[in-house]
Automatic annotation (TrEMBL):
One of its GO terms (cellular component) is chromosome. Keywords: Coiled coil. The keyword Coiled coil applies. Residues 85-136 form a coiled coil. This is SMC hinge domain-containing protein. The keyword Coiled coil applies. GO terms for biological process: chromosome organization. It comes from the Eukaryota. One of its GO terms (molecular function) is ATP binding.
């Protein structure tokens, strides 16, 4: 009914464990709603019928009690602060999950980079060995004879 405009009140509260029974009794069957229209829909829905409190402090009770409706105060209400805190926590959790994903990806990239550098080092070593072998081959008598034969063929 309320989609992303309704939250259970109890998880939004922080309280001492010594007052837990009283808090659970007072807020255990209550929802926090973003606006009055949503609170009315949720509170009077035939399958829900639970007390709803808006971020402005209005209260809708399916028992017939409606309170609030006063002009907005100069400062933001406590419920608005709770809503902002709830949103900030969700953003923080999303950011932490993204950070963890990026760190795992970076770890994988570091492993690939290490393998790349090891293989590149081996290739460079083999190239150096090849150039040294070619140089030694040029200094053999067989290679010198082969060069002389090639020069004679060109001369003939």
């Amino acid at each position: 009914v309320g989609a992303d405009k309704v939250w259970a009140a109890l998880p939004l509260l922080e309280y001492d464990s010594s007052v837990a029974p009283a808090i659970e009794w007072a807020f255990g069957n209550a929802f926090i709603c973003k606006d009055t229209d949503t609170a009315t829909k949720v509170a009077y829905h035939p399958r829900i019928q639970v007390r709803c409190i808006t971020l402005d402090g209005d209260s809708m009770d399916p028992g017939g009690t409606v309170s609030g409706g006063s002009a907005p105060k100069a400062g933001a209400s406590v419920l608005n602060h709770i809503d902002n805190l709830h949103s900030a926590r969700k953003t923080c959790e999303t950011g932490k999950a993204e950070l963890q994903r990026v760190e795992q990806e970076m770890s994988g990239l570091h492993q690939v980079a290490g393998k790349y550098h090891a293989l590149k080092q081996q290739v460079d070593l083999k190239r150096t060995e090849l150039s040294l072998l070619e140089e030694r081959l040029r200094q053999t008598t067989h290679h010198q004879h082969q060069e002389e034969v090639d020069r004679l063929k060109v001369a003939i």
